[in-house]
Amino acid sequence: MRVSSRRLGVYAVALAFAIVVNFILPRLMPGTPVDAMVAQLGPRATPAAVEAIKARFGEIDQPIMMQFLDYLKGLATFDLGVSVKYYPQTVVQVLSRATLWTIFLVVTAIIFSLCVGVILGAVAAWRRGGRFDTIVSPFAVILFSIPPVIVALTTLFVFAVSLRWFPVGYAYDPNLDPGFNFTFFGSVFMHAILPVLTLSPFLIGEFQTTMRSSMIVVLGEDYVTMGRAKGLSNLAVMFGYGARNALLPVLTNLALILGAVFGGSIVTEIVFNYPGLGLTLFTASVARDYPVIQGQLLLMTLATLGANFLVDIIYGLVDPRLRETGR
Questions:
Q1: What's the pLDDT band for 143 if we cut at 50, 70, 90?
Q2: Torsion 271-155-116-184 (CA) sign
Q3: Bridge partners for 82 per DSSP
Q4: How far apart are CA 123 and CA 215, in angstroms?
Q5: What is the rounded distance in angstroms from the CA atom of residue 246 to the CA atom of residue 3?
Q6: What 8-state DSSP symbol labels residue 178?
Q7: pLDDT, tens digit, for every residue of 26-79?
Q8: Rg (CA), the chain
Q9: CA gap 171, 14 in Å, rounded
Q10: Which helix (H) or strand (E) holds 177?
Q11: At what angle do helices 258-271 and 148-155 cross, to 10 degrees?
Q12: Predicted confidence (pLDDT) per residue in 193-244, tens digit
């Protein structure tokens, strides 16, 4: 499917706007990276140490326009700078390590929630007004109304602290050496269960509600009636004729709420001390690490825009009518 030049123009304008906002936001916080590093030194902040810090990170105290030009130059050359908090590591090194964990967490939660939410929404629409619908649909509304921080703190206290069924934090057992073996992967799996379950209620509620509403409309279409007239089974009509076409609004909703998913992952990673982008952004904000904050906000923007672009393409694959019109 072709993506129109108008849509590409919208993406370009959104990216340009995000680049400017990403530069401004960190600088609205009180203090500077130099002030934060000097404060961390405490009694060790000798004049020589302060001068050394200013010599290394003094460009952050330059006039705002000079900083902005350096920022744009870095973006043009794919150089996001050096981290203040994790010096001498570069921003790319810091974010690359954290991104892998966040992608694993978010993608796992989305896939799990999409499967559960779509199935529940399709069945609830198929049995509209029945007992299943009257129980599941109101419960879905409750699910996406609960803030992720409440879910995170509750699951942590109940399942990790009180019952001790799962680890209280980290991405894997700190005593293990990362490696391609079942012990390491098993540890990663166990440590990911609570964070994934924390992100899932909101997503399941959104997907179930959207799928149910879309499915109700689709079930009234002529091709669904035709499928029933052919004598196909309920499952074949429900998922082959109904659910496939009802998925379009669900995919759109996924792209729209991706920002909220990242927001939920930030809270989740902080609560569970999960070494992803959320925890990295938190520690970078405390340290006034402008380069890392700028790089991460830009990465999240690119992920959101990329998801919308991907949905535009998937639309054409799922709905042949859009392929034919070339929209």
A1: confident
A2: positive
A3: 90
A4: 9
A5: 22
A6: P
A7: 888 776 777 777 766 666 666 776 677 666 665 566 777 888 888 888 888 887
A8: 24
A9: 33
A10: none
A11: 30
A12: 999 988 888 888 888 888 888 888 877 776 666 767 776 676 777 777 677 7
> Which pair of structure tokens corresponds to residue 138?
């109101």
The answer to whether 26 and 84 are in contact (CB under 8 A) is no
CA neighbours within 13 Å on the CB side: how many for 208? Answer: 26
Residue 90, strand partner residues: 82
Distance between CA atoms of 219 and 213, rounded to whole angstroms? 10
The predicted model gives 3-14 an average pLDDT of 75
Q: Please check whether residue 119 is in contact with residue 126, taking contact to mean a CB–CB distance below 8 angstroms.
A: no
Q: 107 burial class (0-12, 13-18, 19+ CB within 10 angstroms)? A: exposed
Dihedral over alpha carbons 86, 88, 90, 93 (to 10 degrees): -70
List C-alpha distances in Å: 222 to 219, 225, 229, 256, 320. Answer: 8, 5, 10, 30, 16
- Cβ-based neighbours of 161, under 8 Å, separated by 6 or more: 168
The 10 Å Cβ neighbour count of residue 269 is: 27
Helix intervals (H) in the chain: 5-27, 33-41, 47-57, 64-76, 91-126, 131-143, 148-155, 182-218, 222-229, 234-235, 244-256, 258-271, 277-286, 290-318, 320-325
* pLDDT for residue 152 is more than 80: yes
Q: Which residues contact 32 (CB under 8 A, 6 or more apart)?
A: 60, 61, 288
Q: Tell me how far apart the alpha carbons of residues 149 and 258 are, in angstroms, rounded to a whole number.
A: 17
SS3 82: strand
Quote the mean pLDDT of the chain. Answer: 80
Rounded distance between C-alpha atoms, residue 86 and residue 79, angstroms: 16
Reported confidence tier of residue 1, pLDDT bands at 50, 70, 90: very low
What are the φ and ψ backbone dihedral angles of 90, each rounded to 5 degrees? -80, 165
